[in-house]
């Protein structure tokens, strides 16, 4: 009986979401490009629907200033009443990371339930002493996939890292994007402004969907199970439609990869992709070049000042195939790019931790928020155009003039990145 009731509730939830999509977004999509435009997107949305939790009633704010991101995070943690869940790849014991640890400890001491998951490799600079202090204050802190775990277990490859960046407060406010917890991601007030990155502030039911991803990870570690969370029907009304997508080899999830392929295939006018580590799989390269051949304006913004030089060399090896087919490529030169965003046709956008490289596609735990919202997509497109002003366009003629040494080095780097 309970199972039947759960199935009926899930069907009612899906029907409500689909009805809201038709009622709220169909007029926008039809105005954007007419009947043919909507017909193509209708098929794309149908394919996206099963890939992850979907809800309406979300308010989204795009944040690109690191100081503002951390200030809002700390304010949200200070106001938490029930629960905080946080995942991050890098948690540095610097000014920003130290403040974050203090805020989490203080929340736990006043009775808030606090779960923190940090990647053991990405946060290797975090001293064990600081972690023990956290736990003593009441924070449940977990290092994901310790490299030197004993006894050795083949259950999880040591190369699999938790690359997600999630903070959820009381399951109604969430932060998701590309920023790690470090002074490198803050601005000049709290840090050094090294990276150009993008984060989302989400208020609404999708915050609970992000918390559910962390809960699954914690339960997997503790061998526990819980009921699937489902947004209340009352929450599904208006506002931005958000779908939380994840990539997790342990759960056989490749939702981010599928969503990326389907949205680019369905693109009609323009497709702007931002990724600091740009070594996409050949399948995605083919999809991008096919879109460019049918007249879609496909542009890629990557970094010209990469913090991982071998990745930049591997990227340059791939440029020729894309440039020959009409894909335009830009390298940011004034700052180190770390943002991971996609906008399609000015109606769909995604922001998260997912890079267009083999590590994100095949190994890392990743999360992305896909948003069907013309206002947000337009805002991200404006940011993209602004970023191009501090970037240089890579030309095919320039790429063809590489020296033999550069060609060999880039080809070797590409092969290494495919291992």
Number of self-contained structural domains: 2
Oligomer: single chain
Kindly provide the name of the CATH class of the largest domain. Alpha Beta
Percent of residues in helices: 40-55%
Radius of gyration: 21 Å
Arithmetic mean pLDDT: 89
Characterize the biggest β-sheet: 16 strands, mixed
Supply the key terms.
single chain; 419 residues; alpha+beta; Endonuclease, Chain A; 2 domains; 12 helices; 18 strands; globular
Describe the 3D structure.
By secondary structure, the protein is of the alpha+beta class. It folds into two domains: 180 residues, Endonuclease Chain A (Endonuclease, Chain A), CATH 3.30.870; 177 residues, 2-Layer Sandwich (Endonuclease, Chain A), CATH 3.30.870. 43% of the residues lie in helices and 23% in strands. It contains twelve helices and 18 strands. The strands form two sheets. The chain has a 16-stranded mixed beta sheet that branches. It has a two-stranded parallel ribbon with strand order 7-14. Strand 11, helix 7 and strand 12 form a beta-alpha-beta unit. The N and C termini lie far apart (49 Å).
